[in-house]
Design goal:
Strand order of the largest sheet: 8-7-9-15-10
Shape: globular
Number of strands: 17
Strand content: 15-25%
Number of helices: 10
Largest sheet: 5 strands, antiparallel
Order of helices and strands: EEHHEEEEHHHHEEHEHEEEEEEEEHH
């Protein structure tokens, strides 16, 4: 199963093509639009979210709500393009009016203009923008429906904003409630503290990041492989998470905590009562690059948004002189968006792994093969 994306932040549309979907998978468009809406929600989001109201338009590969087995093509129209067509139109436009040369620290601006031989960082930032993740949320929600048909569910929550950390541990069934809260946090006291911190940072022209926890329940053992490095499930999932803009670290299970403990406190002992099982899950559901049947637990560290309203020190590439970094419309924090995006990219990556093992041209074949697995 393969996803290809295209489109610029202020271009006409964002586009995606999914190859490898079996036929007869029922597609719930309302669910896709719900997750697109959730991606735009959350305390600390910027003005752009008031302009766009993302909706998927499926162009091919689906008839009467069922996949056909052919490539599924879709788009998400950028409403803001109406305000930018004079500067972004591929048919011809005035690029001088929206040139960006005061490159932003922490963004793709400088490295991108050097790599691609550009004099205007807008030619880089338009594609590097996290706006691209709207496509990945749409595609990920389709992958989520493929996995859900097998009994595999994905959910998550925001564990910290900046230095305000929720220390609690939650059952999978508690996680969906997070999406009813302003910052997708489950600890109300910590969420109020985090909101107050974001208010303070906004007044100072600053930004914040956080930690997001993603969990997968219902995946049987044996997905991924110990035989080739590139097929290890943790490598695939962590790579997908790291592909999201602003993510700077990923851990599986207790992650970096495993380096601080003795082996007897890290490894999950194995028991048998008709089925193999473990009483702990410090490995986060993955051993030797393969799922072991326990919940998969991933945690991702998101850095603060690199566009600061107060502007950081930089160089204007047009004249080589010191400058303050350019200001684009920006969020104070986008941890809620990141949570939705990370659920989606995990779903996409996991659906690919599952489909590689199961094969199947139609969903009946796929579900029968999954049921047959131990």
């Amino acid at each position: 199963m393969k996803l290809t994306t295209a489109g610029e932040s202020h271009g006409k549309a964002l586009v995606g093509i999914i190859e490898g979907l079996p036929s007869n998978l029922e597609i719930d468009i309302d669910l896709i639009n719900r997750y697109l809406s959730l991606r735009q929600s959350g305390y600390g989001r910027g003005a752009r979210q008031k302009i766009e109201s993302d909706k998927i338009e499926i162009l091919s590969g689906v008839r009467n709500k069922l996949t056909l087995g052919s490539p599924l093509a879709f788009c998400i129209i950028n409403k803001d393009y109406a305000n930018w067509s004079a500067y972004m139109a591929p048919e011809g436009c005035d690029t001088s009016k929206k040139t960006l040369t005061a490159v932003r620290p922490g963004h793709a601006d400088l490295t991108g203009v050097l790599k691609y031989g550009q004099a205007d960082a807008r030619n880089i930032l338009e594609r590097a923008s996290a706006r691209e993740t709207a496509v990945r949320v749409a595609a990920g929600t389709i992958a989520r429906q493929y996995l859900s048909a097998l009994g595999v569910e994905i959910c998550g929550y925001v564990k910290s904003v900046c230095n305000i950390i929720d220390p609690d541990i939650y059952a999978f069934e508690q996680l969906p409630a997070a999406k009813n809260n302003p910052l997708f946090m489950l600890n109300g006291k910590k969420e109020k503290e985090a909101m107050a911190l974001l208010d303070k940072l906004k007044s100072e022209g600053d930004t914040a990041g956080g930690i997001i926890e993603i969990r997968v329940k219902g995946l049987k053992s044996g997905f991924g492989s110990c035989m080739q490095y590139s097929t290890k499930l943790d490598a695939v999932l962590c790579g997908a998470v790291m592909s999201v803009q602003a993510i700077k670290g990923v851990e599986v299970g207790i992650g970096f905590g495993a380096a601080c403990l003795a082996g007897s406190e890290v490894h999950d002992e194995i028991y048998y009562n008709g089925n193999y099982h473990r009483k702990t899950n410090r490995a986060g559901g993955i051993e030797g690059g393969m799922s072991n049947g326990e919940e998969i637990i991933l945690r991702a560290a998101m850095k603060p948004i690199p566009t600061l309203m107060k502007g950081l020190n930089t160089i204007d590439i047009a004249n080589g002189q010191p400058a303050k970094a350019a200001g684009e419309r920006s969020d104070i924090a986008a941890v809620c968006a990141a949570e939705i995006i990370l659920e989606s990219v995990v779903a996409t990556a996991l659906a690919d792994v599952v489909s590689q093992r199961l094969g199947g041209d139609n969903m009946e074949e796929v579900t029968e093969r999954y049921r047959a697995l131990r």
